[in-house]
Amino acid sequence: MLSIGIAAAAGPEVAARLAPVLERHGFHALWVNDIPGADALEVLAAAAAVTDRLVLATGVLPVDRRSADDVIATVDRLTLPQQRLLLGIGSGQLRTGALDAVGHAVRRLREGTAARVVVGALGPRMRRLGAREADGLLLSWLDPQTAARQAVAAHAAASDAHVALYVRTAVDPAADARLREETERYAGFGAYAANFARLGVAPQATVIDSTADRGGAVAAYRAAVDEVVLRAITPTDDAAAYVSFAEHIARRAAV
């Protein structure tokens, strides 16, 4: 499966322009990062209104600032099509009790919605929780080899666990500087810095820039996990830039 990801800050208008393009080209899903001040579910509602088959996914809703009950109420208010909704959740900024909080949210979301639920996870305990208690995992900032090992472990924990992976990607040379900035920013966060060090993976090895052999890089990731989400890094955040990104990927990959 090959999907495209954007940030919620892009807004509903961008999603409404992009989503039909993704559906027409056969992409599996539109993933939307939830960020403070921009609701991924609101953005997905705009995508839902103009598509029939495209999976609508959040990556991720942090449980420290968005409770399961709040998510359920928002899904109901927006009348999101739950048969094609995938709720990615994560621990956010929690430093204690993260496993319990995420596990509780998984159970509550499964009770309150018909959506599938996946868990954004860095460490092995959270990955096991996602595989065993939810519908799978959303991984991020990994090279193909590490992603493959983590996918094998997830499938060993639960054979039907779905393993998706975010890969920050730029196709336009004008977006490479933004990709570098994004990579350096995450590499500076404590949890991610520790994870890169623990895995022995350089942050730059986990992204695809405009100079890469994109076909080979995407193929390597697709061989590693069940779903690759190319998180679009574009020169600008207007709809035309995201549509151009998706069409470029569609021309060069067997979606």
How would you describe this protein?
The chain is built from ten helices and eight strands. With 255 residues, the chain is α/β, with parallel strands linked by helices. It has one domain: TIM Barrel, CATH 3.20.20.30. α2 links the parallel β2 and β3. α1 packs across α2, α4 runs parallel beside α5 and α6 packs parallel to α9. The longest helix is centred in the middle third of the chain and has 15 residues. It is globular. The mean pLDDT is 96.
The residue ranges in which pLDDT falls below 50 over 5 or more consecutive positions are: none
Question: What percentage of residues falls in helices of 4 or more residues?
Answer: 40-55%
Total DSSP helices:
10
Gyration radius over CA:
17 Å
| Reported CATH architecture | Alpha-Beta Barrel
Shape designation: globular
- Give the amount of beta strand, in percent: 15-25%
H-E string: EHEHEHEHEHEHEHHHEH
Write the layout of secondary structure elements.
Blueprint: E1 2-7, H1 12-25, E2 29-33, H2 40-48, E3 55-62, H3 68-77, E4 85-90, H4 98-112, E5 116-120, H5 124-133, E6 136-140, H6 144-157, E7 162-169, H7 176-187, H8 190-199, H9 214-224, E8 227-232, H10 239-252
Parallel strand pairs: 1-2, 1-8, 2-3, 3-4, 4-5, 5-6, 6-7, 7-8
Helix pairs in contact: 1-2, 1-10, 3-4, 4-5, 5-6, 6-9
Summarize the structure.
The protein is α/β, with parallel strands linked by helices and 255 residues long. 47% of the residues lie in helices and 19% in strands.
